[in-house]
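Help!! Second protein's tokens look totally different from the first
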Amino acid sequence: MKDKKGILAALDAEISLEDKIAFELHKVLSDDSPTEKYSDRQDLQNVRRRKLIVAALHAILQHQIEKLTDDDGSAIIELADDTNPFNELSAAFRGLLHDFQRLNEGMEAERVASPVIRESITGDEIIPIDRKLRILWYVASELYGPSDKGLFKNQKALEEHAATILGSTQRSLKTGRSQLKSSGNASEQNLFYTTLNDSRQLSNESGDQISPLKLLLPALQALSRD
């Protein structure tokens, strides 16, 4: 490849990184070839979005390489004590490109796009979203009081409403709430009691004008619709 000289080099230097990224992204979006290979709409969308990520990263790295190259095409070597972040980004890019190629062929990722080993995660246990939603409905049931009869006739009616949303039964919710309180794991109990106490505290701060359940319910209903 010939080195860029004179006016061409000057023009290239004037192109901003943002414009270079936009140019590469437009090339991906205007490429219809993936539609010939992938019949599933979601697969096609995922492939195209992976290509967008690759294109953006490639433009960033290429821009950095051009900044470190003089007019003769020779590399400008910069010495630094700290690790060059662009070297790290380049390594990440290679790993991502490897994984994206595998994903686009229906195989599992092996490098940066592969999931971590669940058992290696330290700290609080991760509660799946479905389980978290169920626990929050346990809290709602626990918060039910006489001032909430305008919302639900009684606690059982609230649990029946929650059971319909969760695809469960009222008896199962009642039993599950009891078991969580008596022998649930630490992370789930922490979620239960933190939400319970926060709702009660907010109610107290309102001068008990709004019941704890009425404070929690709108957010819980919104989460249940998602």
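Here's the second one for comparison:
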Amino acid sequence: MTSHVSELSVSPGFVPRYNRYSNRYDGGYYGEDPKEEGPKQDLLSVQEENSRLKERLTRIQTECKELRDESKNNRAKVWELSNLVASSKISPKQKSAMKDSLIAKKKEKENADLTLALNQLEIELYQSELKLEEMQVQKRSNNKLLLEMGDVIRALNAIDVECDTSLVLSSCNNPQNLSPQQMSIRNIKLKIEAMTNDREQLTNRCKELERECNDQQHRVEALEAQFRVMNTSKISKGVSFGDAATYTTCGRTTPPDSPSSSSFASGFTLNSMYDDEGNFSQASEITRQTAEIVRYTKELALCKKKEQEQTNELLELKKTQHIQIATIQSLEKHNETISSQLTGTKEELEKTKDENNEVAMKRDGLKSNLSDIIFHYKSLNVEHATAQDQIKELQSHVDRLEDELQATKDRQEQPEDEQKENQEQEQEDSQVAIEQELAAKDQIKELQSHVDRLEAELQSHVDRLEAELQATNDRQEQPEDEQKENQGQEQEDSEIAIEQERDELKSSLSDVVFHYKALNVEHETAKDQMKELQASVERLEAELQETKDRCQQHEEQQQENEEQKEKEGTESSMQHSCEELCSMVELTVANRHATKRIEELETRLIQAGELMRLAKGENEKGDLNYQHAVYRYREVERERNDFQRKLNKALEETRLANLEAQKEREASKEIRRRLTSYLQKRHEDRSNVSCHSRASASTKKSTFKPLTFEELMKKDFS
């Protein structure tokens, strides 16, 4: 069983919750805040320390597993050797013990298989935890994308464009089934359509203004042609009038005649009077034409100014039209990308939900398997304890047999005094063996307590994983508003959790190191016991050889003494020799069994070494998978940063497009105001021209009436 620290989640690149939106204003693109560099460096150092501690934990755990396997193999060897030694003398009790030993072997094999299955289940649980963490990271990224998409949609909805929202309800069959996201997307589409309609209206208005400008240009050209014609006619009339004036004024050198004179009366005829009247009418007409010429020149200047203003306005309208077209196209493209991203995020969310369900199913299966394994492991521990007790009993029986054998040898060779000394030495040895057995029992109890503690840690870790999964499911079920409200609290909790995990890792490292040292000590003691048992086996083999030699010598002596002692004690000597021969045969058979068992143990050790190599290869594969997962996580992080940068750029473009649209609205309002003022002025000018023409027509002079003689006489010509 592994400890609680071994089951800690080793995520490929720890991502804290409060670093969820740190890449929106990435330092490579927007510049980093120097105040934030300190906590970032602290977080990086904490992450590096955590990864280093986790690697050290995994390495120590693998070494602990290797030491446990070696200790189990050594215990199995000890047990087999004790069985071999005990099989030297077979009795009914020993036969039952052999059967129990065979059953214990089978149970040990089952225990080894179960430990392998448990290791495989632990590996699967670790992989499922890695997958769950990857899915949590994907879920966070998807939630972040959804939040950012919501910001983009809100920014697009914030554009003030007049549109008919009733079209949204009329376009769909079931408006009640529409989600708010679909409604917002439909509203955005309607706004884009309204903007395109406004653009078309602006283009039509621009065309109308161009037509009016062309008409005004034609009118100005016609007025200029009339003005030229009038100037030529006026110039010719002015020349003729000037000639007549010089003839009438400058040509006379004498003063005019008085009215009483005969010359005046003779010169004042009807023709002269008609000529004077024509001259006066021409002069008045010339003055009127000059006034009209001045007025027409002013109108021409005003028309030219208005024409220039209209051309400038048309150019501005064309520019705004092009800008609006570009913005509408960019908004349409952005809307398409947003819709595609929304569909992709929805699909990813569905996939993550399915994967979460699968992981939950696997987790439940692993929990049930773990509970079964723990129960079976406890029963196996109990059986293992009973088997160890039997091993100790067999060891004591082997020691007793060795003592008896040694006693028989000493009785044959040594006198009674030496026998007493040997008995005292044997008693001391038995006391030492009893003390060793008590120490072994204490070690077994300590191992059992350590196993119980590891089981409790495993159960607590399983409960913690269940709580974390329940918390993640609750977070998935929470709405977006609550998630936004809980972000600050989650950041604080994540910082506290990081510190707690670091402290737990340090404490668990100290526990693991202590347990590792204890396992090393146990491993060394097991090796020492193996060496002692091998030495005892060699000693027994030597004693067997010596007994064989002694038996041969004894047989020779018996053959020599049989002729002398045929009559006395034949029956007792024969029985004694038969018992010794039987014991020798049994010892030879036991020796052969022991050699076979030793060979089998050597083959098993070789197989165990191969299995350990395979396990190391699987660990290397796990390291490669971990590196691959880290590489994938870095690629996902890079793609997320690129997407974040693109989103920020799109938001900036939408903001600029909104500003440009606002400017275009203001410019269109200004143009409309100018057009209305221009039309009003033109209408006023036309009304003034018509009134002036009417007034001039009404104020025309009456027809010329010649003066009478008396009226002429009354006039003063001075």
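Reply: Different proteins will give different token patterns, so don't panic. The longest helix spans residues 270-413.
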